[in-house]
């Protein structure tokens, strides 16, 4: 590969990245942003515009009195699709890859999180819309997901088969990623608080109790992807041993608080996010346990409560991030605008 070609590819990627960051820029502003000459910036814009990647709009008058045109990414460069699967409800969110706009927000109530229900929701999301073809699909599931992206037991979804979903996404030319719902909560929160390097999110849903762990700034899955299966923690109940999430509500709060206190101290966490129906009581119980065992040197733990629905928000954030990475890769080679290359 010749150096001029490599430079053109890098410059195209940088132009697309700058427009993703800023929304729109004039060609002189793009030149300043990229650190290239105005002639070079104009040539890159012309190439991307001819290929259908960019559109031009009216700008504001410059110092010479001439109106500088603004450069925008084309609105049809693709969409990112997020789906959250639960046995009692499926939610779907489709958004533009190049803006904050969305064109589909679907809620399917009832026992629809079977293979047929999930496939129906997916196909509706993959239907072409005003933003162009879907580039990336992220599906939130109440099950462990290993390092290879495969769903592992225990899966709380009833009669679920992922294979038809994989085929449908492949046929649409998109990319698919499954992710644990609690992990998506953690990823979403971590993206909004990048200064926190060690945190945990614990959520209670109809499908059970899960936890997402961010350690040293990275999502922690454990050896098999089952890290965070909080509801599966064994708890003694009389002479029997059961799972934490099967305990009666009052005992579940106490047991959850004790398990969280052990985790917080053992991992030296900075922050804990709680998404529980009785979150206030859980936080109060946890704080009492931590204060009773504090030795004066234990750093304070910040605890926050997040509203329900954050797995879908996390899936939307992740799908947008992955779709933009694919868009940037395609920009280097002026790849197709109709599907993920």
Automatic annotation (TrEMBL):
It holds the Pfam family ROK. SUPFAM superfamilies: Actin-like ATPase domain, Winged helix' DNA-binding domain. It comes from the Bacteria. This is ROK family protein.
